[in-house]
Amino acid sequence: MSDQALKHFGVTAADLLGSGVQSRAYALGEGGVLRVFSDKTTLAHVQALEAFYRRLDSQAAPFQIPRFDEVREIAGSACVVEARIPGIELTRFLETAAPSARQRALSSYMAAAGQIQLIGFDAPYHGQILGAAPVRAETWPDYLSGRAQASLDQAPWARADLIQPARALERLHHLAQSRADAPRRLAHGDYHPGNVLVDDEGQVTGVIDFSVQAVMGDPLLDLTSAAFFFDDKADRAYAASQAHSLSADLFAQASELYWLYYSFFYLSAKAAKPALYDLCVRSLNAAAEA
């Protein structure tokens, strides 16, 4: 990521707020954030993301979402200046939180997962909103199957590790029929503790980093998958227990469906995250043998 961009905006490595796969965020003045994207992220993608954020109506949501004030390219790196949302990443909060604060934060985190659908946005399809070649379909089950097939096609190396990928695809398609009548709403698609900001009390203040995983589709995608991304088993179990608006049977079925969805999605992660790739392969092989 460009040192020239940091120099241009007058920030240093000491101003780093956090980093992810796509970008690094730096404190900029009192109320701003400079986000410098990796060389793999094009200016066109960031401009599309800016347009997406402008279309969102978050007045009904009890948390903030990003707002871009400036988009530009410096020395080959796409850069964004955005308003700073108060709070810290939930991941960091949990590192030092006392048990009571931890549970309070996890409850707020799960509640926010169900509230993303309150953000106003509409599109005449089911599927990905962003991306150079987004997968879209007329129905939600067709999108899920299409996205899984596309993920498999984009990861040809996975066929050597998967026992019967067609059987895993069949299982996903079968489970997807149970959500055929789900309302079409905005889903973050990459909802995890690193993309959620909380205040000192553990209450969610913001949801950030919408990406190519953002979709028009089933609101249960965020709610059921929100617990997937915890390394701590106790946190994962407690977070899942907070999805109390669902019946036990519906939650279990939706969780299996979206676990398979993400297992296909992350087959591309073999080089960058081999442990995640191995987990996806094990999950898909288990589904094929079920």
In short:
With 290 residues, the chain is α+β, with helices and mostly antiparallel strands.
Ordered list of secondary-structure elements with their pairings:
Blueprint: H1 3-9, E1 16-19, E2 23-28, E3 32-37, H2 43-55, E4 68-74, E5 77-83, E6 88-89, H3 90-96, H4 99-115, E7 126-128, E8 136-137, H5 140-153, H6 165-176, E9 185-187, E10 196-198, E11 204-207, E12 215-217, H7 220-225, H8 233-241, H9 248-265, H10 274-289
Antiparallel strand pairs: 1-2, 2-3, 3-5, 4-5, 6-10, 7-8, 7-12, 9-12, 10-11
- In terms of structural class, how would the helical and strand content be classed? alpha+beta
Helical percent range?
40-55%
Quote the beta fraction: 15-25%
- Order of adjacent strands in the largest pleated sheet: 1-2-3-5-4
Number of domains: 2
Characterize the main sheet: 5 strands, antiparallel
Count every beta strand, where a strand is a DSSP E run of 2 or more residues.
Answer: 12
Please give the alpha-carbon distance between the first and last residues.
45 Å
Count of separate DSSP helical elements: 10
The sequence of SSEs as H and E is HEEEHEEEHHEEHHEEEEHHHH
- Describe the oligomeric state of these chains in a short phrase: single chain
CATH topology of the largest domain: Aminoglycoside 3'-phosphotransferase, Chain: A, domain 2
Q: Point out poorly predicted stretches.
A: none
Radius of gyration: 19 Å
Question: Which CATH top level class of the largest domain fits?
Answer: Alpha Beta
The averaged pLDDT comes out at: 94
CATH architecture verdict of the largest domain: Alpha-Beta Complex
| Overall spatial form | globular
